[in-house]
Design goal:
Blueprint lengths: L3 H7 L10 H33 L15 H11 L10 H17 L13 E3 L2 E3 L9 H22 L3 H32 L4 H6 L6 H4 L1 H14 L11 H4 L9 H26 L7 H6 L8 H23 L5 H31 L4 H43 L28 H5 L11 H11 L1
Antiparallel strand pairs: 1-2
Helix pairs in contact: 2-11, 2-13, 3-11, 4-5, 4-11, 5-6, 6-9, 6-14, 9-11, 9-14, 11-13
Length: about 450
């Protein structure tokens, strides 16, 4: 149980805000460089892993083992012709990729790379392995993630074309439906840690990672972070099968590269957030931390953090090489009918458990209370579904009987429709029976058109 004194102590951020300006600049450059290097590596790694899954070679020309392929692609994009379409709103058209890319870099500012109380030495100055921290750091992460979606929406609108507009609208709807479940998953972590500070959340996982305490929240966040980054199988805004290229169809050169950069930086950012909230942050895994006391000291936490982030990036790549793209209606159904209800119910369950723990209830009593409540809900839902199913069966039978009695109209709604089972097409007017059609002889009187017959009769007159 987390007492109020422990919560206040965990939110003590006095170690931040005292670094000299040059050290703050160095840490900011490190965060930027960390994202850029990770993005360059992730692009090559994705192409290599997908090629390995598909029994191909992958990049192997630029640099050793093709490691400089992503750098070569970036140089190539910068050297391409920068085209601005004629019907575009030029100001918004140029600002859209910038709006999409800048917020992607901002969330890394509050991610801890190491413990705040065990500071490292940089040029003789002791400092925490984190740029800064806030009492509401996770709300800051949600805010900057939401701002980035404006770049995609404005890119689709400002292009002056149909397909980019549809891609931008898809992205907006996708963001709305998935950020609700993401916020509920975050709230479960806040209830257990007692803080919204990223460094305090990692400190609260000293005994047990939240992936073990809150597995449903972790699964919900993993699904929502894939949807937030517009990655396969949820890459609806840029699905080339039906939208050509989506919101970035009319972009080229460096502006197109900024959209791709924003996508991969967002992948790194959401992976870092997932590591911070559920995977113990910079803490070493259990076998190492149990047998090595210095595993979480010095610069070693940076290694564990990077390895965990790379593991989640591999998960992104694995999904892209394995699962096909879902339909848009399936995407919306998953977000509104599955993730949001499950996340809300799970949040209520977590809040109930925390409230009972704060009232000093025994763990076995909490388990019995929660299991009883869940069992009651399941029985109630079963009874409701049972009566609802009987009612739907009766309504379906009445509807089928009415449809069978009513004459079938193949042009209902102005469009030709095929008959359903139990329905039959009405007879075609002025159509001879099949037996009569077989008896017609070529050149006979039945093969003469009405116009030619009238012409012959006129000649005879």
């Amino acid at each position: 149980m987390i007492s109020q004194v422990q919560v206040l102590a965990a939110e003590d951020l006095s170690m931040f805000g005292h670094d000299p300006w040059w050290l703050v600049l160095i840490k900011a450059v490190f965060c930027f460089a960390f994202l850029m290097v990770t993005v360059l590596f992730s692009i090559v790694w994705e192409r290599k892993v997908v090629a390995w899954m598909q029994l191909r070679i992958g990049p192997n020309r630029h640099g050793p083992w093709g490691l400089l392929q992503s750098l070569a692609d970036g140089v190539k994009l910068m050297l391409k012709e920068d085209v601005i379409v004629k019907r575009a709103d030029k100001v918004v058209y140029i600002l859209a990729p910038i709006i999409a890319a800048i917020p992607a870099f901002m969330a890394i500012a509050v991610i801890p790379f190491g413990p705040a109380d065990n500071q490292v030495s940089i040029f003789g100055h002791r400092t925490a392995m984190q740029l800064t921290d806030l009492p509401i750091a996770m709300l800051y992460v949600l805010a900057v993630a939401s701002v980035g979606i404006y770049g995609i929406v404005l890119a689709g609108w400002s292009s002056g074309s149909t397909y980019p507009l549809l891609g931008g609208l898809r992205s907006c709807a996708q963001m709305i439906s998935y950020e609700i479940a993401m916020g509920a998953a975050f709230a479960s972590v806040f209830l257990y840690s007692g803080s919204m500070s990223t460094s305090a959340i990692v400190e609260a996982q000293a005994d047990r990672w939240y992936i073990l305490l809150l597995p449903v929240s972790f699964i919900i966040y993993v699904v929502t972070m894939v949807g937030e980054t517009n990655r396969a199988p949820f890459d609806m805004p840029e699905s080339e099968g039906d939208l050509v290229g989506g919101f970035n169809t009319e972009y080229s050169s460096i502006k197109f590269a900024l959209f791709m950069l924003a996508e991969y930086v967002n992948m790194v950012t959401v992976s870092a957030v997932s590591v911070t909230l559920f995977l113990g942050g910079w803490r070493a895994p259990y076998p190492i931390s149990a047998f090595w006391e210095g595993a979480n000291q010095g610069w070693w936490p940076l290694l564990w953090f990077v390895l965990k982030v790379q593991l989640l990036l591999f998960f992104f790549i694995w999904l892209r090489g394995t699962l096909p793209r879902v339909r848009y209606d399936q995407l919306m159904k998953l977000g509104w009918k599955v993730l949001i209800p499950v996340s809300v119910v799970w949040l209520m369950l977590v809040a109930t458990v925390r409230a009972l723990r704060n009232e000093n209830y025994d763990f076995q009593q909490i388990v019995l209370y929660v299991a009883g409540a869940v069992l009651s809900l399941l029985v109630l839902s079963y009874v409701v579904d049972l009566f609802r199913g009987d009612k739907e069966k009766k309504e379906r039978a009445v509807r089928e009987a009415e449809e069978a009695a009513a004459p079938f109209d193949p042009m209902a709604g102005g469009y030709p429709v095929p008959p359903l089972p139990g329905q039959s097409l009405p007879p075609v007017p002025r159509r001879r029976p099949r037996r009569e059609r077989e008896l017609i002889v070529s050149g006979g009187p039945d093969t003469v058109s009405e116009g030619s017959r009238e012409g012959k009769e006129g000649d005879g007159v």
